[in-house]
Amino acid sequence: MVDSTENNNTEKIINVKINDQEITVPEGITILEAAHEVGIKIPTLCHLDLHDFQMYNKTASCRVCMVELVDARNNRNKLVPSCVTRVQDGMAVRTDTLRAITARRGAVELLLSNHPNECFTCPKNLECELQALAEELNVREIRWEGERMSYPKDTSSDAIVKDANKCIYCRRCETGCNEVQTCGILSGIGRGFNAFVGPFANIPMVESSCTYCGQCVQVCPTAALTEVYHTDKVWEALNDPDKHVLVQTAPAIRVALGELFGMEPGTIVTGKMVTALKRMGFDGVFDTDFGADLTVMEEASELIYRIKNNKTLPILTNCCPAWVKFIEHQFPELIHVPSTCKSPHIMFGTIAKTFYAEKNGLDPDNIVVVSVMPCIAKKAEAKRPELTKDEHNNVDIVITTRELGAMIKEAGIEFDRLPDSEFDRPLGETTGASVIFGTAGGVIEAVMRTAHEWITGQPLEKIEFEDLRELEGIHKATVKVGDQELKIGIASGLGNAREILEDIRDGKADYHAIEIMACPGGCIAGGGQPYHHGNHEIVKQRREAIYEEDRRQKVRKSHENKEILELYKSYLGEPFGEIAHELLHTHFEERERI
Questions:
Q1: Per the residue annotation, which of 129, 227, 299, 328 is the catalytic one?
Q2: Rounded Cα gap, residues 449 and 446, in angstroms
Q3: Cα three-residue angle 245-248-249, rounded to 5 degrees
Q4: Is 127 a catalytic residue?
Q5: How far apart (Å, rounded) are the C-alpha atoms in residues 181 and 173?
Q6: What is the mean pLDDT of residues 151-163?
Q7: Residue 118 burial by Cβ neighbours in a 10 Å radius (0-12, 13-18, 19+)
Q8: Which residue among 141, 145, 147, 386 is the active-site one?
Q9: Is 381 an annotated catalytic residue?
Q10: Around Cβ 556, how many Cβ atoms within 10 Å?
Q11: Is the separation of the CB atoms in 205 and 192 below 8 Å?
């Protein structure tokens, strides 16, 4: 062992022994972190450390990460939770003693004794972290049979299902909801054996101020929180001979769907996805990117209109339904600030039920629009009464990336062997600008590509706005547009959105435009994406793939999309004009904060 020293950054380095391996580590880190440094795995369950998302759950409530501290001098070893116990100079730790292994296994057995034995039909079968731990720790029987929690399942909302009987009280969802998203919806309810996490007084989810962002679902280790499943509705529509069923896929889907079939995160599977959807029987397979290009046309026009006419600034992009519901509940006094544009998939649904229906001689009543989204909140958004046209839903059914993966498997399609296919036309031409909607900062960059050229009348020298691409919670940048300097803000995660909204409310903000995405990192880390299980590298790989897809596009600016221009010429009129406003814009509601 070497003496304790301090490095150039004044970080004290200490000596620790783990399983007889002598190591030097920074003072203040946990045993769990120190063990990771030398390749020793200690199982965890409640622990969550997503540094890039600023999401830390260190409640030490599950006791799955127990290790043994060796006290040779007094011969009094003790068990401690490694996720919260800090290393000390000279500390000796054993992770592999019978006592430590038995304690960890016992903790899992106790959790299983109060957990439903329905793995075969559980929505998180083979994705459940409790299930995986039981296998890892070689749990082969539940020795303590007895009474179990028995609560009714909460299916009140259109987006999230809460099953308190599967809650293991890890409180990850509470951390995500309250500390990261600052929604304040979830908290501990009850005590002891019957304790679980839910909304205040266990009111139904639909009566709470939940935004349905789905980050609680993304971090829940079991199926205590899952999305509302709509796959049966899709199969029913596909098998109804009287229905003309269209499907659209969001930009973030193409860089994550492959993970469900064993492909590397960030693999771009656009062509295979289109082929799979066509084989499943959809009458039309389209790209939500077309709706994103429409959104750029309208939001860029609205931004320019507000600047030229001294209207309300900043304008807030409005593609994320979770953040819209957040401002409705939490900041109703700012309800006039966001763009009035519908979100891209709702815009596409509107065009499908109007222009597409007329062009193909179809009755809108017989058209079913299915959206494949990375987002759980889109399910609730599609049911909003103001998002209708002549009493028709713009979008009829929303499924997540995970649900699409399940349907492809259910159909017996070998996804990795599929050839590539193209999206259907018309309404199928898209641009690189629309692809980057899938990641934080992408929406405002896409809007600026168009707004810049419309304001200056000159083509961009460089298409990529790299200053808008920092993966930070809050990012600020200034974009030179002719003789103007437009101040841009980007907020990723609702906690960061709160900070920006408070500045706007208090008159401290001087932005021209702000993008807000409810999910940290944007849609690529949405609540409906394949579970990343706390591995933020997966999210980074998806993000890079989104930008790669942008670079591969022949057309990278929305206002150069020929099919978009033809749609305006033949049907919509001018961007931000009367017809466009009627079909592509909406309004918001002040909601009670509960």
A1: 299
A2: 5
A3: 145
A4: no
A5: 10
A6: 97
A7: exposed
A8: 386
A9: yes
A10: 20
A11: no
Residue 441 identity (one-letter amino acid): G
Annotated catalytic residue: which of 523, 549, 557, 560? 523
With bands split at pLDDT 50, 70 and 90, how would you rate the model's confidence at 536? confident
pLDDT digits (tens, 9 = 90+) for 262-316: 999 999 999 999 999 999 999 999 999 999 999 999 999 999 999 999 999 999 9
183 is catalytic: no
Question: What's the mean per-residue pLDDT of the chain?
Answer: 93
* Span of 35-49, 65-79, 102-116, 155-169 with lowest mean pLDDT: 65-79
Going along the chain from its start, the domains and CATH numbers come out as 5-109 (3.10.20.740), 114-227 (3.30.70.20), 231-584 (3.40.50.1780)
In the predicted structure, residue 411 carries a pLDDT above the cut 70: yes
What span, in angstroms and rounded, lies between the C-alpha atoms of 166 and 222? 7
pLDDT at 391 exceeding the cut of 80: no
Q: Pick the catalytic residue: 162, 166, 353, 378?
A: 378
> Residue 389: which pLDDT band, with cuts at 50, 70 and 90?
low
Catalytic residue at 341? no
Instruction: Taking each helix axis as running N to C, give the angle between helix 129-136 and helix 98-113, from 0 to 180 degrees, rounded to the nearest 10.
Output: 140
First to last CA, the chain: 57
State the Cα–Cα distance between residues 346 and 396, nearest whole angstrom: 10
- Active-site hit among 61, 209, 339, 434: 339
Does the CA dihedral 381-383-386-390 come out positive or negative? Answer: positive
Task: Outline where 61-116 has alpha helix (H).
Answer: 98-113
Comparing C-alpha atoms, which of 151, 257, 183 is closest to residue 545?
A: 257
Residue 9 pLDDT grade (very low, low, confident, very high; cuts 50, 70, 90): low
pLDDT at residue 1 in the model? 33
Count Cβ neighbours within 10 Å for each residue of 9-42 and write b for 16 or more, e otherwise. eeeeebbbebeeeebebeeeebbbbbbeeeebeb
* pLDDT higher than 80, residue 129: yes
Q: What is the pLDDT of residues 84-107, one digit of tens each?
A: 999 999 999 999 999 999 999 999
Structure tokens at 444: 């405002």
155, 123 Cβ separation under 8 angstroms: no
Q: How many Cα neighbours within 13 Å face the side chain of 493?
A: 22
Percent of residues in the chain assigned helix, strand, coil, to nearest 5:
40, 15, 40
**301 in active site:** no
pLDDT in the model for residue 513:
96
Q: Is 147 in the active site?
A: no
- Identify the helix (H) or strand (E) that includes residue 368: strand 367-373
Helix H or strand E segment including 253: none
**Catalytic entry in 227, 259, 298, 381:** 381
Is 177 designated active site? no
Determine which one of 46, 177, 319, 375 is catalytic.
Answer: 319
pLDDT at 5: 43
Respond yes or no: is residue 386 known to be catalytic. yes
DSSP classification of residue 228 = P
Catalytic residue among 174, 302, 515, 560: 302
CA distance 6 to 513: 46
The single-letter DSSP state of residue 571 is: I
